[in-house]
Design brief:
Elements lengths: L1 E4 L8 E5 L2 E5 L3 E5 L2 H9 L9 H9 L28 H15 L5
Parallel strand pairs: 1-4
Antiparallel strand pairs: 2-3
């Protein structure tokens, strides 16, 4: 039983590391949700496994609500913030960029 994100397009693929190599597979999906927090809540409720960035499950792991099944299997995912090139960014865009940069520097986007 696996909980996956609900996205349009090809089936969701999970990444795992095996023998020093990254592998992809399509999990047997029993629940499709479009919200990361809802996915975590579903896993806490016992509805299945999920693969999420550690930043979204850190608290649930720390308090014992969730348990890492394959802690040695971790595949990095690049995060890119892009915006139109212009001389002056709006204060809202600048705020988001600054927040993302600060969160990444603290390891909170892992």
């Amino acid at each position: 039983r696996c909980i996956v994100g609900s996205f349009q397009g090809p089936p969701v693929v999970w990444f795992v590391a095996e023998g020093g190599r990254d592998k992809r597979f399509t999990p047997p999906t029993t629940h499709r949700l479009s919200d990361g927090e809802a996915m975590v809540d579903a896993a806490i409720g016992g509805l299945g496994l999920l693969q999420m960035p550690i930043s979204l499950v850190r608290e649930a792991l720390a308090n014992g609500a969730l348990k890492a099944v394959l802690p040695a299997c971790s595949v990095g995912v690049d995060v890119h913030a892009v915006w139109p090139r212009q001389a002056q960014l709006s204060s809202r865009v600048r705020f988001v960029i600054d927040q993302l940069t600060a969160q990444a520097a603290q390891g909170r986007l892992d």
